[in-house]
Amino acid sequence: MSLLTGDRKNEATCPNVVKCPTVISMVGLPARGKTYMSKKLTRYLNWIGIKTKAFNVGEYRRAATEAYRTHDFFRADNKEAQEVRQ
């Protein structure tokens, strides 16, 4: 039985997979292939039967801070923005 998906078809391909979720974090300089490698790794792991998802934290951060895209966010007298920056 596959430990992650609950079916028997992948028993031989990934016998050493642990039951708990695993996080692989890619960090480094811009434009060095982090997204490319994470997508390739996700595709391979899904192909061998390990359910995998890739998340781009940069996209999440940009969406979460949409309201703070002006220079007013960095003003010293903006108490709300100061709390968010903390």
From TrEMBL:
Gene Ontology MF, one: fructose-2,6-bisphosphate 2-phosphatase activity
Domain of life: Eukaryota
Any GO BP: fructose 2,6-bisphosphate metabolic process
CC per GO annotation: cytosol
Domain 6-phosphofructo-2-kinase: 11-86
Keywords: ATP-binding, Nucleotide-binding
Family annotation (Pfam families): 6PF2K
Annotated PANTHER family: 6-PHOSPHOFRUCTO 2-KINASE_FRUCTOSE 2,6-BISPHOSPHATASE LONG FORM, 6-PHOSPHOFRUCTO-2-KINASE/FRUCTOSE-2,6-BISPHOSPHATASE
Protein name, entry field: 6-phosphofructo-2-kinase domain-containing protein
Lineage: Eukaryota, Metazoa, Spiralia, Lophotrochozoa, Mollusca
